[in-house]
Each structure stands twice: as structure tokens, then as C-alpha cells.
Design goal:
By secondary structure, this protein is mainly α. The longest helix has about 35 residues. It has one domain. α2 runs parallel beside α9 and α2 packs antiparallel against α10. It is about 80% helix and about 0% strand.
Length: about 210
Amino acid sequence: MIVDPWVLLAFLPAALALNLTPGADMMFCLGQGLRAGPRAAVAASAGIALGGMIHAAIAGLGLSALIAAVPGALEVIRWVGVAYLMLLAVQALRAGPVLRDAVRQVRPRAAWRAFGQGLVVNLTNPKVILFVLAFVPQFVDPARGAVPGQFMLYGAVLSLGGFVVNGAVGVFAAGAAGRLAGNLRIARVLGWISAGIFTGLALRLAMTQKG
């Protein structure tokens, strides 16, 4: 085995605690659940999970260290993420009220769009890059070799846990929205809330301090 089983067991509760901590990924899935229903929320969570795996792979290859060492590159990534989240907020407002039928029925194309959005949101969050660089290496043992493989294994654990937790949050939000969306006024408020969540995430990312 490329990792010590005891180290992996120690990693599991730490990873679960991190997955359960509310953050940008969880809030994004919550917003997707409110906006487009459970399928979109699960699809967004899957996109975020894939993003986590990509971050782990990059870190394992040593490229994330290079990105972290170049503040300019990290800033570009951050502002791309800000712009993208603001775009999603504008789209949520332009889409109008969240209606019950829209919450219950999501076409495959919409689910794929939510998947792509989750992937982009995760990949353009520099906090995730720095987190992977700071947290995962604590459990990597170079003496065992296959360092990229170790990063991928730990990244898979984090991504799987995040997929389940974030997806569950999004599905719960979609269920609540589905019960409330029959009222046009409430439906309109739900649309504003989802747009507000995306805007809040953009502002939070914009105010992220370097280092």
C-alpha cells in the first residue's frame, strides 16, 4: 500500500471535519439547490469533487508549489473566480423567480452546466490550492515513494467526503425550495437568495488576503 493504513485512519476524521466545515463549496451547492433543484446540486458537488482531485494531482506533481510561489498567478486565478461568481449571480437574477417545476425538473444539459460551474468555482479558488499544499503534505511520506499517488489517494478521500456532504446540503436546500416555490413572492425571494449567495462568495473571494 502506498500509504500507512494508520496514517490513513488518522486522515479520515480530519478530512471529515474539514468536509463538514461550511465553506465556499458548500454554499455554492446550497445556492444551486435553491436555484435549480437536487440534480443540479449533486452535479455541482460532483464538479467540485473533480476540482479537488485536480488540485491534488497538481500538488502531487509539484506544480501547485510553483503557482503558490508566484503571487501574480494566484491573483489572476482569484479574480477570474470573482468574475465568474458575479456572472452566476447576474444569471440567477435574470432567470427570474424559482418556480416549483424548475426545482423539480432539471434537464440533463442544466445538470452538466451545474457540474461545469462547480468545477470552475473550485479550480479558481486559490484558498483550495493553498489548503491542499498546507494540509495534505502532513500525511504524505516520501519514504514510501509514489508521492503523486499519495496525494491522489488523500485527495480522493477529501473529494468523496465533500461530494457527499455538499451534495446533501444542496439536496436539502432543493427540497426546501420545492416546498416554498409554489408561492410566486417566495419564489422570487429564493431567486434573490441564490443570487445573493453567489455574490457573497464573490465578495468573500475578492477580500481574500494573500499568504
